[in-house]
# Entry
Amino acid sequence: MDKQTFINKVTELQANYQPNSAVKAHLARVDLIAVVGATGVGKTSIMMQSGVPYVPSDVTRPIREGEKNGVDCNFRNDYDQLLQEIERGDFVQFLLNHNGEFYGTKGTAYPPEGVSTMAVIASALPKFEQLGFRKVVPVYIVPPSYDEWMRRIGTHHDADLDKRLVEAKTSLETALAADGFSFIVNDKLEEAVEHFRLLAKNEPVADNGGQAGRIVAEQLLAELTALQNC
# Structure
């Protein structure tokens, strides 16, 4: 099966997909720290250094520089096998991103029980909250400022950057309008990781609710809105 045929079949299955009963039973024992944030804010670094079990996604996109197969993601091009796993209900969820690439997480990628973490796009969060996890804790990662964010992503000016900025604006709007999000400012990585660890343990943090991060998020949204209105 070629990739386009696989994508066409996945598109047909997406609307009515449900994980199988074994996967659903597994999720009832798992807490998910769902990490949202724009490109270049350091989501992966924080998750990887936190010690919280990380859930890698299965993806069909090409591997990026610095990524490791089986660590950052499971990079798949065995489309027949992948389709069989979807049809069996082995995946917790899956989606097709703005480039038509498959992203999904299998039940076996999660720990048997307890806390886990993975990156989630803001628009998919309601779906995760309906999947039957014991608990879903949404966390939004922001850079310390718009200028610093632009500096960090300055080396990533590729064909996808404009789409990622549009996606970032949407995710900021979603997070700021929703209840329950905690905001973490990734200025000094060690401090951001410690903030994340405390949230994962459900322990109090100095900036309760991430008010400083919320202010930065509002500033980022204002900058992106102005940019896209130019």
Remarks:
- The first strand starts at residue 30 and ends at 36.
- Residues 211-228 form the longest helix (18 residues).
- The CA atoms of residues 40 and 150 lie 9 Å apart.
